[in-house]
Design brief:
This protein has 324 residues and is α+β, with helices and mostly antiparallel strands. Helix content is 74%, strand content 7%. Helix 3 (47-77) packs across helix 11. The chain crosses the membrane at residues 48-71, 190-211, 242-263, 283-311.
Length: 324
Amino acid sequence: MSADSSSGGASASANRAAPRRPSRIGAWADHHAFSLIASLGRLLAKPWAAALTIGVMAVALALPLGLWAALGNVERFVGDVQEAREISVFLKPEVAAERAGELAAELEARGDVAAVELRTPEQGLEALRAASGLDEAIAMVGDNPLPSVLIVRPGGDELTLAASLETLPEADLVQHDAVWRQRLDSWLRFGVRLALVLAMLLGVGALLVVGNTVRLDIQQRREEISVLQQLGATDGFIRRPFLYLGACYGVLAGVLALAVLTATEWALRPALAELARSYGSDFVLQGFGLTHAIAIVAGAGVLGWLGAGLVTGHTLRQTRPTET
């Protein structure tokens, strides 16, 4: 009994002392964590070189992002103009107020009209006094020379509606500002296209910067990579630290680009707000929100990951030992 119990205790002790082999998923996660930490260590080991690479990438990212933000603010600034599609119909002076009211009701009943507002000559004169401050000069005019005005908001195609309103026998002048707004829309579309082209070109430039930096790091570790290949390490195992290195470059460059754009926004916001107030507007410059900021940083990280992946894959194919 004592021998059996001693042998059983020895086997139990051996089982407890035997190390537990990690699972494949655990080993995979451990190597990812190690690769990330090692990549950060390489960045800290060469701070000046890393700062130059991150700075160049940040500039390449900030230029199209700044243009994109500027276009967004311009679109928001002119948004009230874009939404205000009113057509001003100045009636003939001989049109009576009763007929002007009837005409407003007739136009509002049309399917291509969303709303109609009638401004009487008295309302127009009061608005002119409030805007100009020339009460004495207006009083010297005598009778009110202003006509009735119909402010028509289109419910469909404004160009067709404006042409239809010009045929009204009571209409003296139809004022419509669609031409310059169409030109503004064309300029904004051109700006968006320009921002996309710049983003593509500078994004390729940032990708090449990361790729060249990672290539130099690979050249310095060529012997280490050769040994790992001789020991049977897969390309994914060897490439993983360099991928994280490129992603770190991209993420830090995205953060730096956002910081530069935010500082620029803070510097320009007071002057632009003062200029907007001089025109009677409460416009305030807006930067990137949290969602956009996260997307920009993540996109920059993916860009760095891709640049490192392209260069690393090409280099590993060249350094792979030939079979004899």
